[in-house]
Design brief:
It is a single chain. This protein is an alpha/beta fold and about 250 residues long. The chain folds into 2 domains: about 1-135, Rossmann fold; about 145-245, 3-Layer(aba) Sandwich (Rossmann fold), CATH 3.40.50.620. About 40% of the residues lie in helices and about 15% in strands. It has helices at about 15-20, 30-35, 45-65, 80-85, 105-110, 125-135, 155-170, 190-200, 235, 240-245, and strands spanning about 1-5, 25-30, 70-75, 90-95, 115-120, 145-150, 175-180, 205-210. The strands form 2 sheets. Strands 2-3-1-4-5 form a 5-stranded parallel beta sheet, with helices on both faces. Helix 3 (about 45-65) runs parallel beside helix 4.
C-alpha cells in the first residue's frame, strides 16, 4: 500500500507521516532524505521536480510490491509531478497553509483536482492520525489485538469463526501463519497461497508470516492470556484434510 502525503513546504506532511509511523510498521520516504542521497544530482527546476517525483514513485512501488506499507511525503506541487509520481493507493493533501517560505514553490503550486483525504488547519495531530488510519484501513499496533497462530492449510469456516471471536474481544486480529510448506503431507500450501485463501474470507485481514512455531513459553506478568475457544460442534468437526481434498490440494 502506498499513502502519499503532499502539500506546501511547512504544512506538516512529515510530522503527520512520522506520527503514523508510531502506530504501524510502515516505511517512510521523505523527499529531503531522498534528495540528500539518491537525488543529490537534482535541483528544483520544474524538470528536476518531475524527475524527483518519478523516483519517489518508483521507490514506493518497489517497496509496496514487497508487501510494505509505504508513507511518502513531499511537496508534489504540480499536476505534472503528480502524474510523474504515479498512482498511490491513498492521497492525503495536507492543506494547512496557503503560502510557504519558498516563493518559487508558491509560484509553481497548483491546487490538486483529486485527493482522497484533506487535512485542514485546526485539526489536532491525534485526530489527523485517526482520520488517515481509519480511511486507509491501517491497523493500529498500539491497540489491543488478538493473535491467531496456525498453519491454516487451508483457512476454513472454523478459522473464520475464531476470527470473529477475536474481533469481539479486541476489535482487531493478527493472523500469524506458520511457514510449514513441505514439512508434511498436510502442508502443501505456501505462505502466499495460505494468504490467498484467508483473503477470500477476510479481504482486509492483517496476516504475518512467522517461522514454524511449535512451542510457546511465557513468564510472569506478560500482559496477555492464552485462551482455548470452544466453537459449536459443527465447526469443531471441520477437517482441514477434507478441505484440501475438496480443493484438490
Amino acid at each position: 500500500m502506498i499513502i502519499l502525503f503532499f502539500g506546501l513546504p511547512g504544512s506538516g506532511k512529515t510530522t503527520l507521516a512520522k506520527e503514523i509511523l508510531k502506530h504501524t510498521p510502515a516505511i517512510h520516504l521523505n523527499a529531503d532524505d531522498v534528495r540528500a542521497d539518491l537525488s543529490i544530482d537534482l535541483g528544483f527546476s520544474p524538470e528536476d521536480r518531475i524527475e524527483q517525483a518519478r523516483r519517489m514513485g518508483a521507490m514506493a512501488r518497489l517497496l509496496s510490491a514487497q508487501g510494505h506499507v509505504v508513507l511518502v511525503d513531499f511537496v508534489n506541487p504540480t499536476e505534472a509531478t503528480r502524474k510523474a509520481f504515479g498512482k498511490a493507493d491513498f492521497t492525503v493533501w495536507v492543506n494547512r497553509i496557503n503560502y510557504s517560505r519558498f516563493e518559487d514553490t508558491n509560484f509553481l503550486w497548483e491546487t490538486p483536482e483529486k485527493f482522497d483525504i484533506q487535512i485542514v488547519s485546526g485539526m489536532e495531530l491525534a485526530t489527523e492520525v485517526t482520520v488517515v488510519m481509519a480511511a486507509t484501513g491501517l491497523y493500529d499496533w498500539k491497540k489491543p489485538t488478538t493473535l491467531m497462530l496456525g498453519r491454516y492449510q487451508p483457512w476454513h469456516e472454523g478459522h473464520d469463526a475464531l476470527y470473529d471471536v477475536g474481533l469481539d474481544k479486541t476489535g482487531q486480529v493478527l493472523v500469524a501463519v506458520r511457514d510449514t510448506q513441505g514439512t508434511s503431507e498436510k502442508d502443501p500450501l505456501s505462505h502466499d497461497q495460505v494468504t490467498h485463501y484467508i483473503e477470500k474470507y477476510r479481504p482486509n485481514a492483517l496476516v504475518m508470516r512467522v517461522p514454524n512455531i511449535t512451542n510457546i513459553i511465557y513468564g510472569r506478568d506478560v500482559g496477555y492470556k492464552i485462551e482455548k475457544i470452544e466453537l459449536s460442534s459443527d465447526l469443531q468437526e471441520i477437517s482441514a484434510t477434507k478441505k484440501r481434498q475438496e480443493l484438490g490440494l
